[in-house]
Specification:
Elements: H1 2-12, H2 19-37, H3 45-50, E1 61-63, E2 68-72, E3 77-85, H4 87-90, H5 118-121, E4 127-130, H6 141-146, E5 153-156, H7 158-175, E6 181-189, E7 193-194, E8 200-201, E9 206-207, E10 212-213, E11 217-226, E12 229-238, H8 255-262, E13 275-278
Parallel strand pairs: 12-13
Antiparallel strand pairs: 1-2, 2-3, 3-6, 4-5, 6-11, 7-8, 9-10, 11-12
Organism: Clavelina lepadiformis (Light-bulb sea squirt)
Family: Belongs to the DNA/RNA non-specific endonuclease family.
EC number: 3.1.30.-
Length: about 290
């Protein structure tokens, strides 16, 4: 599995750019997108707060009460889902919403030909995997209900969804207890693989009847803010069984790899001079 991940990273890091050069280009690209976003209209207060440091893209945006989503009508998955977490939003108390009270449902805001349905997942062998995790939104039952729209769901291997990916979600929530603000971008990836003929191909399964794409990988990019300084953590996991005993840091990849693979630009509105750490620091043991 690690050979596949390393091979994917090598494939995506086209051009063999050195780390310092990647960082330079990352900073320069953010200046371009920051200027482009300046012309975008102001959004309601909560989405504005969630997207404080820029939109990865601006296609088919869905503004939920407590997260923002960009929807891919071709793959019937999200391009990305964005969340903003704080200690008060993720803490558990007697008023916390209960996920057992909510059911997965079609997203009526998406034209019917491009929607995922529960029928697609029935006996598919895949879990309905949350991108914006339900447990991230337990401060309000309406917020949690929003996470059960199938536009926020991707087909995910059960042994990934219930183990290693779940550990990553728990770790992400734990960060909200150590930072003032935690901004999270999550999404699917469809990565190339070199076949026996030596050529690269992108192949993925689709679920019937609506041809919902099964991602080959998932990513999560986390921006942690404390007193005006930022730490960035970026992860990529294959959509297959992953041993939950493998440390989460083993799945860290340069954020540029995720950007190249997804066609998205992460946190374009962030002043990179305020970045303190990138993919460093000890992971919390779950």
């Amino acid at each position: 599995m690690f050979k596949r991940i390393c091979g994917t990273i090598a494939t995506l890091a086209i051009g063999g750019l050195a780390g310092s050069e990647l960082q330079k280009r990352w900073a320069n690209s953010r200046i371009f997108f920051k200027n482009a976003e300046a012309a975008m209209p102001l959004l309601p207060t909560r989405p504005t707060e969630i997207m404080k440091y820029g939109f990865p893209s601006n296609t088919n945006l869905k503004m939920r009460e407590n997260y923002v989503l960009s929807y891919d009508t071709r793959c019937r998955n999200a391009h990305w889902v964005f969340e903003h977490l704080t200690r008060d939003l993720v803490k558990v108390d007697e008023n916390s919403a209960n996920r057992e009270e909510h059911n997965f449902q079609e997203d009526g805001s998406i034209p019917k030909p491009f929607r995922a349905t529960n029928q697609d997942f029935f006996r598919s062998g895949f879990d309905r995997g949350h991108l914006a995790a339900a447990a991230n939104h337990r401060a309000n039952k309406h917020w949690m209900a929003d996470t059960f729209y199938l536009s926020n769901i991707s087909p995910q291997h059960p042994q990934l969804n219930r183990n290693a990916w779940n550990n990553l979600e728990k770790y992400t929530r734990s960060l909200a207890y150590h930072y003032d603000n935690v901004y999270v971008c999550t999404g699917p990836l469809y990565l190339p693989r070199r076949e026996n003929d030596g050529k690269l191909y992108v192949t993925y399964q689709v679920l019937e009847p609506n041809h919902v794409a099964v991602p080959t990988h998932f990513f999560k990019v986390i921006l942690c803010e404390r007193q005006g300084h930022f730490d960035l953590k970026s992860y990529m996991m294959p959509n297959e069984p992953v041993d939950p005993k493998i440390p989460l840091k083993s799945f860290m990849v340069p954020v540029e790899v995720i950007e190249r693979a997804s066609g998205l630009l992460m946190f374009s509105g962030l002043d990179t001079g305020k970045l303190r750490k990138i993919n460093s620091g000890k992971e919390t043991k779950l």
